[in-house]
Q: What sequence folds into this?
């Protein structure tokens, strides 16, 4: 299967490794910075790969079957729509888009063209998360009470200077949209997907050189009667502390922790179907960074979805759901009121200037 990658920045090695691990024919790499393409081609010994700075030229010349999009967030939607229009299956890095309108356009285009569109929420493939999801689908939690997603990380000025688009409303958003959206995706997915209402605060405390937030706090009410808590920040001193996901039900309590929800730290169920110590040992991993090991199984699922003519495990709609929840948090914080879902229209651009007058 002919594969191409658009965007050769920070996350691109995970995509290239996943493509190689799944035996894809990597025909092209594309980035507006030629040195980024050269460096990845050399690092991964892709001697025969074709190099591009214009993805449209790449699509026309190479006609790849599967394209991964790993550019700055604000360009995801436009590139995805061009790839879909060219008949390509696509894997879109998070967030799938920065507006409800663009996310809807991607979903519609993918359906009309009959191509697989996957939102790259790779943490759904963590061993820990997969086992929690299995317990949830088996009904072991009973009635859900509430869940909590915490991302307590550090990002300094050097991180933002590496890529000036980070922290801007036009191309990114703040810590909730960039660093926390994976955990927000997991929380919404686990707690039932259907959100009724969101109440939130966001603030910019330690990063005055950004446009967007570095702290977000939210309470979520789900349609099934359960609740969710979100805490996301890039202000933790002096380095990343943890990313944790809690699920509390009538008959079960679970905590996933570690750098990216990759370690089961608490496992207790009334049915006593499995040994907690064994579960915590068997379904925990220690990846080298916050990106985890999920890209390779996500790619494997997408390839199988293409072959079997089915939806991927993580769909474009799932990508929209995560985006929508972040935008609802932004909207609630900006307007100082509860916000009901679904959102008909909302974009990160709606919040330009939000922190401009902050003391």
A:
């Amino acid at each position: 299967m002919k594969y191409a990658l658009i965007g050769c920045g920070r996350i691109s090695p995970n995509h290239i490794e996943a493509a190689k691990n799944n035996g894809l024919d990597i025909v092209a790499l594309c980035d507006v910075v030629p040195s980024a393409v050269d460096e990845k081609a050399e690092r991964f010994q892709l001697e025969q790969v074709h190099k591009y700075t214009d993805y449209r030229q790449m699509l026309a010349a190479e006609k790849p079957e599967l394209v991964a999009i790993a550019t700055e967030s604000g360009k995801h939607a436009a590139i995805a729509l061009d790839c879909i229009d060219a008949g390509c299956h696509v894997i879109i890095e998070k967030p799938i888009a920065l507006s409800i309108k663009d996310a809807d356009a991607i979903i519609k285009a993918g359906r009309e063209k009959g191509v697989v569109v996957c939102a790259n929420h790779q943490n759904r493939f963590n061993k820990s998360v997969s086992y929690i999801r299995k317990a949830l689908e088996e009904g072991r939690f009973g009635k859900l009470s509430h869940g909590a997603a915490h991302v307590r990380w550090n990002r300094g000025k050097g991180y933002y200077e590496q890529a000036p688009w980070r922290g801007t409303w036009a191309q990114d958003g703040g810590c909730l949209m960039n660093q926390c959206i994976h955990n927000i995706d997991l929380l919404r997915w686990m707690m039932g997907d259907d959100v009724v209402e969101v109440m939130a605060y966001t603030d910019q405390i330690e990063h005055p050189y950004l446009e967007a937030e570095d702290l977000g706090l939210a309470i979520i009410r789900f349609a099934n009667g359960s609740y969710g808590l979100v805490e996301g920040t890039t202000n933790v001193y002096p380095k990343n502390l943890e990313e944790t996901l809690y699920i509390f039900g009538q008959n079960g309590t679970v905590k996933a922790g570690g750098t990216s929800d990759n370690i089961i730290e608490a496992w207790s169920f009334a049915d006593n179907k499995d040994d907690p110590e064994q579960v915590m040992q068997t379904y925990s991993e220690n990846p080298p960074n916050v990106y985890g090991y999920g890209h390779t199984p996500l790619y494997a699922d997408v390839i199988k979805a293409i072959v079997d003519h089915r939806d991927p495990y993580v769909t474009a709609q799932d990508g929209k759901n995560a985006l929508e929840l972040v935008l609802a948090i932004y909207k609630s914080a900006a307007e100082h009121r509860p916000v009901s879902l679904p959102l008909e229209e909302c974009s990160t651009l709606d919040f330009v200037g939000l922190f401009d007058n902050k003391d």
